[in-house]
Each structure stands twice: as structure tokens, then as C-alpha cells.
Amino acid sequence: MAGVKQFNEEEALGRALDLFWARGYRATSMLDLAEATGVQRGSLYNAYGDKEEIFLIVLQRYSEAYLARVSAAFSGDDVAAALTRYLDACIAIMMAGDPPRGCMTTKTATDTALNGERVHIALKGFLDEVEKAIAGYLATPVFAARLALPPAEAARLLVTFTRGMAVLERVYQDEKRLHESARSLVKALVR
Asked: What is the per-residue DSSP string for 113-148?
């Protein structure tokens, strides 16, 4: 029937996310997406338009899941524990897979000149959303009172740090090193 997807969209988009995460945006073709999802290229084009549109859809899904992890990390009333949970969650995301797949957004961001304006805007929006969410949690009185920096500055530092951590994961692939660096940041941020 025309206009009706003849495939499991959740499953196909999940596989597309995995492929973009493993290969990166630029190195993934529509043929790759068709093979990974089990959906013919023509059906993918009809359902989503092009590779960029598929990427933007899966990036939104990734963003929602990531922000849920941020929310879970910043529970309780101990800012050091919350920061540690957040950074540990970031490390777990990067180290997932065999071999570890790293950070999808940082991997994609390093190719922004080749990705197109919509992808660049979406990545910037993702990072802005993460920073805003973290700043909101850190601004609560119980957290803010123990921070060595104002909440907005601490949030920006955390987002910057996690992007750098993603690069170090690619270079060293040393989970212990990432956790040690994360603990050092927590010590620097909490009074």
C-alpha cells in the first residue's frame, strides 16, 4: 500500500543509529544503510528522503536517550556523586561495543565541514541542550552551594571535557585513564 512503511521503523532506525555510530556520518552511504537495516534503498528514500534526513532522525533519538541519562545522573543531593555518575555514563557510552564505538556526536562533529549545514546545526543543538540541562541541575541550591564555579560555567566545562574525553578514548582506548581524568575533574569542580 503506497505511503505505508513496509518495515519495522523502530528496528530500522535502531540499526541506522548503530551504523552511523560505528562508521560515522560521512563514511555511511545509503547502500550501507539499506544493507544494515534490511530495507531497500528505494524504500528508505521514499520514507525519509536521504541519508541526511535519516541521520537527523536517529540523532534526535540519540539525543533523547542521552538527555534521559543526564537526568538520571543528576538525581540525589550529592553533587560529587551526580557528576561522577554523569561522567561514568559518558564513559560507558563511549566504551560500549566491541571494539568500543566511541562517541557518535564527537565522531560526526570532527567531519562537520563535510557534513552539511543541517547536520552541523543539529549537533550544535544537541550540545546546547546537554549544556542547558546540566546547568539546570547544577543550579539547584544543594548542588550550586558546593560547586567551585557558577553552574553555567561548570556545565560548559563538563560538555567540553566530555568531548575531549571522547577524543582520548579514540586515541588511548583506556577506560581506566578516562575514569581517572573524570575523577580529577570532579575534584576540581566540587568544593
From this structure: HHH-HHHHHHHHHHHHHHHHHHHHHHTSHHHHTTBS
Is 182:107 a contact under the CB 8 Å cutoff? Answer: no
Contact (CB, 8 A) for 176 and 189: no
Burial of 138 (0-12, 13-18, 19+ CB in 10 A): buried
Is residue 68 within 8 A of residue 167, CB to CB? The reply is: no
CA angle 130, 149, 90 (to 5 degrees): 35
Q: Position of cell 543550579?
A: 139
Does the domain spanning 60-189 belong to CATH 1.10.357.10? yes
For residues 34 and 36, what is the distance between their CA atoms, to the nearest angstrom?
Answer: 6
Mean pLDDT of the chain, nearest integer: 93
> What does the pLDDT look like over 143-166, one tens digit per residue?
999 999 999 999 999 999 999 999
Distances (CA, A) of 41 to 6, 10, 38, 51, 125: 13, 17, 9, 10, 29
Q: What is the mean pLDDT of residues 25-52?
A: 94
Q: Contact 22/97 with Cβ under 8 angstroms?
A: yes
What 3-state DSSP class applies to 190? strand
Report CA Rg, the chain: 18
Mean pLDDT of 101-127: 86
pTM for the whole structure: 0.91
